[in-house]
Amino acid sequence: MKNKMVWILAVFTAFSGGQAVYGAPVLEEALQGATTGTRSGGAFVAGGWQVTGKDDTIYWHVPTIAHGAAEFDVRGLQANERRAGMEDKTELFHMYDHTVGEADLRYTGGYRDNTFKHFIRKIGALDAAKTDAMEILWQIRPNYEEPDTARLTWDPSTTCRFREEWGPDGKGKSVLRIFRDGKFLLRTSVAGAWQPVGHTVRIGASPRRDPAAGAPVGAIFSNVKVWDLSRGTNQVRLNGKSLCDETGPFLGLGVSYFQALRHARYDRERLNRNLALFAAKGFNYVRILSMVSWDGLEIVPVTFTNRAGRVIPGWPDYWQQFRDLLDLVAQHGLRTEVTLFADAQYVMPSKFARQAHLEGILANIAGRESKVLHLEVANEAWQNGFPGAQGVSDLRAFAQYLADRTSVLVAITSNDDTSDRGISALYRGSAADLATVHFERDTRTPEAGWLPVRDTYRAGNLPGVPPVSSNEPIGPGSSVSSESDPIKLCAAAVFAYIANLPAYVYHSRAGVYGYARCCPPAGGEDRFEDSAGINAYQHVRRILPPDLASWTRNDGLEPGAPFTVFCDDQPNRHWTEVRGATNGCHRNIGSAKDSHFVSFPMGILTGGVTLEARRPVQFEVIQPLTGTSVSNLTLNAGGRFTLPQGPGAYILKGTFLAPSRGTARVEETRPKHFPHRIWAAGDLGGRTRDYARETL
Questions:
Q1: DSSP assignment of 79-136, as one string?
Q2: 96, 368, 383, 533: which one has the fewest Cβ atoms less than 10 Å from its Cβ?
Q3: 3-state SS of the chain: helix, strand, coil percent to 5?
């Protein structure tokens, strides 16, 4: 953490949903004979604190918790409550800002009119249409939601455990989730951040003195717990379009490893070797399948008949292997993207079984949320058990189900229509936090294989669509078309981040099949170590700013771009627009934040590419495959320089300078171990300085 403090974390496995709540505990009160809170009324009895009058309450002041969880137990809640003083509502739990109008004690101007306010109430017999439902308020003024749950069953002899979780959704809203006895009840959200200056947590009655509402007389409260989930969870979330955890923003660099769960069961040695390789090569997560029906390579949560017509018995230890895999991946410093449904038409054709699998995933990531980058409902859903309009409806419903019940980020799928319209139709208005898209793999265009690299730009800012991950791009051995050129593979990741995508996945044949020892193919095995491009990404995350996905991008041609690019002496042109071009680049997109910028000329022709500064700049030229700093340049507006073809692309990273008087200036510094110069020219008081143009 930034303040270098070491937090002692408490891990408590909550009865609610079987979920473990990680984070810094700020309140733990069993209410067995005493409380540290402010108590008004009630009595301590066997089992906890009992309400003896409808105005009884206990409240605590806690630090401001923008992202937290709370739990409490209560026994003695009656069905069809019609006792005098409780026939309208019984008040159970509250949070608010006690600095607003002395809200602990005052209703008008305090509790009632609070900027930050949340409560849980049980609805009594006075409202016949809603009796035994629960009324929930979630308010960050001027915004609020006041939904009701469905009508619930109640038994006064049964202890109910309530849990609520709240926190930012990364999109400018704060989300609230309510559970009872492990069952999800309700999810709601409002615009704004939950940041009460004086945070009060309260059970029993509020300061409201309604003759038909108050604390539930006779009920016994116990085991009140509150956690600050912003400390010690290290869970992935979104800030703008950037992935973040407690260490700050980061670029998601994943690798397809579809057979990982099978390797966890049958070949731990290979699994650990692969995970160690990924970590060494700069990746920070793996994308796994939780099921598949490939003959001899099945991943088997339940018994099913595979593609070849063979009955495949379910693994009796499936969920143990799943948990072990998440743990092993984390031990190597990586996280996991879990794709839930693949070959679901074979493995789980019934919706009932699929629903049960969702429950299983939720139960088994509980307590391991920080180890999961995100969930994806299905892989290419239209051909994996979710065809047509009904398939889309089910996908969106499943995404909503997951999002309502976990704080782990959720994506839906990359469906058959990956046009802008298709992506928007699937994701707009959904509960998804991320959109997983499989971009173009066609290398037969006149763009000489660069189309799959640049295709992500169109999806970086689609209205109403969440941040996009390039989840299964072209790679060595990929279907449809394959790409093994390291610079194009590396460039696809760099380009995606600059285009405002927070995540990119390296996709290879080894990542799809990754044959285990129990079932090698006749022609041998595919190994990650031998896959083209496995070394192409290891410097990318070190070079690029970690929050780059949230910067303001440019297409390299617009006025906000730091440079004017030339192709055969024509400004603002790429070689795709100039027939027979001998110099220039395919694209030169960039991004900026405050005074900082990144520019990425790629697909550089043999004659190099000339760029001209639009404003004073100082920047570093970096070779993306090696991470080598090739040169450092300082230019005034109008200063030109030419990059040789070199590897075919360079990352330019620098800052905008204040305008200076005089004519264009070019200054260059280079590492001593690097003798070659970038060719540069500028008007230096009537003289032109030319550096020799040499291949880097």
A1: TT--STTTSSEEEEEEEEETTTTTTTT-IIIIITT-SEEEEEEEE-TTSTTTTT-EEE
A2: 383
A3: 20, 30, 50
> Is pLDDT at 301 greater than 60 in this prediction?
yes
β 570-571/563-567 pair status: antiparallel
Residue 481: pLDDT band (50, 70, 90) is confident
Phi, psi of 109 (to 5 degrees): 80, -10
582 contact partners, CB below 8 Å, separation of at least 6: 568, 605, 606, 607
Closest CA to 156 of 215, 78, 218: 78
Position 687 pLDDT exceeds 80 = no
With cut-offs at 50, 70 and 90, classify the pLDDT of residue 535.
very high
Residue 509's region, left for phi above 0, alpha for psi from -120 to 50, else beta, is alpha
Rounded to the nearest integer, the mean pLDDT of the chain is 90
State how far the alpha carbon of 238 is from the alpha carbons of 170, 435, 468, 533, 552, in Å. 5, 13, 12, 28, 17
The string of DSSP codes covering 300-345 is -SS-EE-TTS-EEPPPTTHHHHHHHHHHHHHHTT-EEEEEEESSHH
What average pLDDT does range 1-11 have in this prediction?
26
pLDDT of 69-86, one tens digit each? Answer: 999 999 999 999 999 999
**Cβ contact 632:668 at 8 Å:** yes
Sheet containing 237-239, strands listed edge to edge, beginning at the edge strand earlier in sequence: 237-239, 242-245, 248-250
Strands 683-684 and 687-688: antiparallel
Q: Which residue, among 476, 412, 486, has the nearest Cα to 441 in the 3D structure?
A: 476
Q: Which residues pair with 191 in a beta bridge?
A: 173
Extract the tokens encoding 59.
Answer: 């409240």
Band the pLDDT of 39: cuts 50, 70, 90.
very high
The answer to whether 454 and 470 have CB atoms below 8 angstroms apart is no
The phi, psi pair for 674, rounded to 5°, reads -120, 100
Alpha-carbon dihedral angle through residues 560, 566, 569, 574, given to the nearest 10 degrees: -120
For the segment 618-646, what is each residue's pLDDT rounded down to a tens digit?
A: 999 999 999 999 999 999 999 999 999 99
Phi-psi region of 410 (alpha: psi -120 to 50; beta: other; left: phi over 0): beta
- Specify the DSSP class assigned to residue 148: B
Burial readout 281-304 (b: 16 or more C-beta within 10 A, e: otherwise):
bbbbbbbbbbbbbbeebbbbbbeb
For residue 13, list its beta bridge partners: 20
CA distance readout (Å), 168 to 118, 143, 164, 239, 352: 15, 15, 14, 9, 32
Residue type, 1: M
